[in-house]
Design brief:
Number of strands: 11
Shape: elongated
Radius of gyration: 18 Å
Strand content: over 45%
Largest sheet: 5 strands, mixed
Number of domains: 2
CATH topology of the largest domain: Immunoglobulin-like
Order of helices and strands: HEEEEEEEEEEE
Helix content: under 10%
Length: about 120
């Protein structure tokens, strides 16, 4: 039984993952990576922006990895190793007041506090 569990565990390590139509296997150098995390809020930092798409774009090959912000404005995106710029979905009357700098992810990195601040134009 122990041998069967070990073989099953090894098989899971070699399993194939797919993201945005590109297959990556355990031998692919990009299959191992980390997590980018942060939040999207308004400039007064009291109002989280939920339901916003945040995209990590690999600056070397253009691959895109998306997440949607939660009710607290937070997001996490698991990505392969690489260098990424981050984008956030804006709505009418909004501009970016603060954008996180590009980030580099290596094995098992957690790059937290990649926060956006959005200025919301008030109607009047």
């Amino acid at each position: 039984m122990a041998i069967r569990v070990a073989v099953l565990g090894f098989a899971l390590c070699l399993s194939v993952a797919c993201h945005h139509g590109r297959l990556m296997n355990a031998g692919d150098k990009q299959a191992v990576g980390g997590t980018i995390a942060g939040s999207v809020t308004t400039t007064d930092r009291n109002v989280p922006l939920a339901g916003r798409k945040v995209t990590a774009v690999d600056t070397d090959n253009g691959m895109r990895f998306d997440a949607t912000t939660g009710v607290n404005g937070g997001y996490t995106i698991q990505v392969p190793r690489g260098r990424y710029r981050l984008e956030v979905e804006l709505r009418e009357g909004e501009t970016i007041a603060k954008r996180p700098a590009a980030t580099r992810i290596t094995n098992s990195d957690l790059d937290a506090r990649r926060d956006f601040e959005v200025t919301v134009k008030r109607g009047g």
